[in-house]
Amino acid sequence: MRQPIRMMAAGCGVIASLAIAVPAFSGDEEDRVKDIENSLSRIKDKLDGVASKSSSSEIEEATREAYRVKEAADKLKSMNAQNDPGKTMAASYADYVDKFQESMRGLKDMKEAQLKADNDRLGERCTEADKNFRSLINSYVDKKDKSEGSKVLNVI
Question: Is 1 exposed, middle or buried (0-12, 13-18, 19+ CB in 10 A)?
């Protein structure tokens, strides 16, 4: 289950790689480009290691951050961006974000299924850990006096 989540998270991280080095230009267009690049970096950070996280909150935060990318791309489009990467962002990023957010819904569903599966096996894992712990304690107790080891385990 973790492998598909890693693959999807890595694929979703591709959106972060869309940020291209900003050429020297000034004004509102440059500010929107920087906003997009910063948002893409935050998305990447949120999704990094998502398979090992204990909730889907990072996925939700990345999805909200993607909305900011879309807003900034729409703003670039309405400004009629003249320079790259602003022109590219204005032309394509809103559509990329829509696809990204769709992927995030799938990733969130997968993460929630993973968490449910982990919780469903919690009792089984606790029983196994208890068995291993008791075995470890018994290995330290002198083989001739198992009754003392049992007393220690009953106290625990």
Answer: exposed
Report which residue type is found at 31. D
- Answer whether 62's CB lies under 8 Å from 45's CB: no
Cβ-in-10-Å burial (0-12, 13-18, 19+) of 117 comes to exposed
* Greatest Cα pair distance in the chain: 86
Backbone dihedral region for residue 23 (phi beyond 0: left; psi -120 to 50: alpha; all else: beta): beta
Q: Encode the chain (156 residues) as per-residue pLDDT tens digits.
A: 555 565 555 555 555 454 443 443 458 899 999 999 999 999 999 999 888 888 899 999 999 999 999 999 999 999 998 888 999 999 999 999 999 999 999 999 999 999 888 888 777 878 888 888 888 877 777 555 555 556 655 655
Residues 10 and 6: their CA atoms lie apart, in Å, by 6
Q: At the top level of CATH, which class does the domain 2-120 belong to?
A: mainly alpha
User: CATH 1.20.1440 residue ranges in the chain?
Assistant: 2-120
